[in-house]
Amino acid sequence: MKVESVVVGPYVMNCHIAACEKTNEAVIIDPGAEPEAIAARVDAMGVKPVAITNTHGHPDHIGAVEAIKEMYDIPFHINSNEQVILDAASQIAGSFGVPFQHNLVVEGHLEDEGVFEFGEVVMRVIHTPGHTPGGVSLLAEDHLFVGDTLFYGGIGRTDLLGGSYEELIHSIKERLFTLDEETTVYSGHGPTTTIGKEKKYNPFVGERAVF
């Protein structure tokens, strides 16, 4: 599998494009803004998007979903527990002083321990609530897309609608840190990392945690 990322929007959000190297079918993960920039990267990769798969529904992660759906005529997938976040997206964005409206239709749900297949790639869905109620991490081969659950040296915030610090810590320690330490972690913001590095060095949840 090949993965490329595009940094988009005022919140410096990582949109990831994951593609099967044999068939060139791809999924677009968290298209948060700047659909033209995302499409340019898709074209440069020479891949064919077949779906949008979102880790969660915060405004900075869904801002370009409608445009990407229209560009490629592809469905939008998210966890069913995230509907409350989608419904409140305008309210959440407004709390940051940012106007936001959407008319998103969800065509498919990413449920815990389900799989999503594109080309010859099988993507496993891992429910990782805490940042949001329906947050998921998506594992394909040795690539893990975690949205805003886990960052290089950090963890997701839990003070927004539906957030829970206890759930977030459980999701990280019991669902993510049980994965192979060599797994590459692609976060919604910031650089990539690995499960092993975060298990050891993350100051919030790692072996050397100070918080």
Provide a concise account of the structure shown.
This protein has 7 helices and 14 strands. By secondary structure, the chain is of the alpha/beta class.
Labels describing this entry:
211 residues, alpha/beta, Metallo-beta-lactamase, Chain A, 6-stranded mixed beta sheet
Descriptive account of the structure:
This protein has 211 residues and is α/β, with parallel strands linked by helices. It has a single domain (2-201), classed as Ribonuclease Z/Hydroxyacylglutathione hydrolase-like (Metallo-beta-lactamase, Chain A, 4-Layer Sandwich), CATH 3.60.15. 25% of the residues lie in helices and 29% in strands. The chain has seven helices and 14 strands. Strands 1-2-3-4-5-6 form a six-stranded mixed β-sheet, covered by helices on one side. The chain has a six-stranded mixed β-sheet with strand order 7-8-9-10-13-14. Helix 1 (35-45) links the parallel strand 3 (25-29) and strand 4. The N and C termini lie far apart (36 Å). The mean pLDDT is 96.
